[in-house]
Every structure is written in structure tokens, then in C-alpha cells.
Amino acid sequence: MGLLDSFERGLERVVNGAFAKTFRSGIQPVEIASALRREMDTRAAIVSRERILVPNSYEARISQADAERMSAIGSALEDELRTMLTAHARTQGYSFSGALTITVRADESVSIGTIDVTSHAVAGRVSWQAALDIDGRRHTLTRARTVIGRGSDADITIGDPGTSRKHVEVLWDGERAMVRDLGSTNGSKLNGQKVRQAGLADGQTITIGRTNIVFRILATAQSERLPQQQDATQIIDAFHGGSHR
């Protein structure tokens, strides 16, 4: 299954069946993804045996009519494009010179059904932002500990009767992450396997009740350390230094 297939699956989370009819003509979202990937591959430059540098700033210009159709998706389109390009870069062993940015905008000089992609390198330091994709919605992790469950006192509340009020927590220290079950009644799974606590990697799926939670790590501009991240770092360090259960 290729990266573009994965992109299409991700896009289905944010585009409902009725809206999908909009794309029967004109530019398809997956065509923008393909054009961006080609631009990255074309502009890849070998710096050394260990490093292949690619641009980190991309702009896809499309016709006004195509842009109006895309606008119904909102920021979710650029989020999915960023996720796809980040995954492609990792697979190919590419390095960015700064945080990855993608912009899709209308250009009157571009004809319907055409994509004009440009890219360039913007110097800067890459930092990483964690997020959770739940039922087609992306939740950016803005704190060191994020509790998920059906209770109103959870940081992320989900309407799943098969989950506990405080079911799991995700810890994020700015570089590493882990998931920990909070003594839930029905337990938790990571990529289909029962888990009490475990380290998290990009793309892994946490399942609680009937709800799937996809963990994401995205490249962003350099940001300040999140409040209480030091606390999460200590917990994760202890986890990696001890036994994994």
C-alpha cells in the first residue's frame, strides 16, 4: 500500500460522502499530494552520504474554481498533505532545513485541473508537535499529559460507552511519547495488542472501546517548551529505563 493510498484513507476522515461528489471534476486532493511528492523528489539534493536535503516550504497554486471546492475541507487538507510529505521524507531518508510548511492557494493564472507547485528552503530549526486523530478530528497536544475518556473531566472527551471516564493518558515531552492505561474497565490496545503502558511512534493506533486514536508527530516551527513537559520527560525516562508491560 503506497503513501498516496494512505493519504486517500486519511482524507476520507475529513471529507464526507456527500462532499466527495464535489471532486468528480477538476483537481482531486490526491493529485495535489502527488504533485508535492514529485516536487520533493525532484528537488532532493545529496549533501553527504548520510544526508539528502529537500525544500521545507511548498506552495501549490490551483485555479479559483478548484480552490473553492477545496475550501470546504478547510485546514484538514493541508494537515493531511503535511502528514503525507513528512512520511514520504522519512521513507526516503530526506532531511528538511526547517519546519515543513504547505500552502494551497488560488491563482487566477492557473487553469482548471492544473497544479503549479513551487518550493524553497527556509532556514530554521525543526521542532515536533504531537497530535491525536480521533473520528476525523485532529487534537493537538498542548500539555504534557492528555487524558482521554468519556468523562467531562477528561482533556479529550469521547462519546463511547465502552470507555471509562478517564481511560488512557498520552504523555508527550516534546520529543517522545507514551500511552498509559488509567485502570480502565475494558482495557486498551496499541496496534491491536493489549497494553498497560508503552512508547508511542508516529502512526500507531490506540484503541479504547470502539474508538481508534491515531498518534501523529508533525514538524512545526520552533516553539517554547510546553508547561509541565519536564514532568512528562521524567515519567518517560523512567519508563524507558524500566520494564515495558
Automatic annotation (TrEMBL):
Classification via SUPFAM superfamilies: SMAD/FHA domain (SSF49879)
Entry keyword annotation includes Nucleotide-binding: no
Keywords in alphabetical order: Phosphoprotein
Xref: PROSITE patterns: FHA_DOMAIN (PS50006)
SMART domains (alphabetical): FHA (SM00240)
Domain FHA: 146-195
Keyword Phosphoprotein carried by entry: yes
Entries under Gene3D superfamilies matching the protein: 2.60.200.20, FhaA, phosphopeptide-binding domain (DUF3662)
UniProt-recorded name of the protein: FHA domain-containing protein
Lineage: Bacteria, Bacillati, Actinomycetota, Actinomycetes, Micrococcales
